[in-house]
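Please check both lines for our workbook:

___
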Amino acid sequence: MTSFSLSGTPLLSRTVVDRAEELRSDVEALRAGWAEARLLRVDHRGQVPVADTELVLGDATDLGPDPTPGAVFLGVRDGRHVWAVRVLAQTGAVADLRRVGDRLGDADADLMVSAVALLNWHDHAGFSAVDGSPTEPTISGWSRISTATGHEEFPRTDPAIICLVHDGADRVLLARQPVWPERRFSVLAGFVEAGESLESCVAREIREEVGVDVREVHYLGSQPWPFPRSLMLGFAATADPDQPLDFRDGEIGEARWFERDEVRAALEVGDWASPGDAPLLLPGSISIARGMLEGWVAGI
């Protein structure tokens, strides 16, 4: 077997909320919708109010009678506008995406991912990358403009590849970073460099990290990863398990080829947070890596 698919839509890729792009510049429509709008508060740790498996949304009018500068418009859900805002502190139960993302419903997950990604960008985009002047948010938080020249800048996303390397049969190459606990492994990943295609990035990153040459690179799917602003682009590739491993760039502390049955058993045990002395611990369902491994094990 040389090909497979993701086991399902990555949990952070569930885009179901109407982003209503046509409303972002419609001042009157946004003002009219503000009275009934919902508000998601996000602190600097990416935490939001939660109750069990649902987001706790407040009333936008708590911020004032009109749309507030600094708030970002996320779209329309159940006929009501939804905004997000950065706050210094929260009260009550809160959680971040890593803790609660796999338990949220589709719409809640969609709203939270967008809110965290946008607000993270705003936190680091206060000055223009072109002329260095202060910038101000515009288009309801979906861009910023230079106060000196009017130059417009848009939310930045950093593309990164994540690749499941297998031998075309029943072995997969997994690795762990030096700072990870023993037994905690995942697939390989790295950022795309300037002037580089995604396929070239896959080949370069795998070679740099473990010294292995890959072939038959094919795309599986993608997932936003707003920690702080990445987009994970999933690939699969084949390699020769007899080629010696060489940890060239210092980013990998250990890498090994695992049998399909070993990976299947590890998936059944749980994930990185699972207790016990399992010989192999794999990423949780919040990561696209999990869906890649599940798809490879099942051969789907």
User: Anything to note?
Assistant: The chain is about 20% helix and 30% strand. The mean pLDDT is 95. The domain at 11-123 is CATH 3.90.79 (Nucleoside Triphosphate Pyrophosphohydrolase).
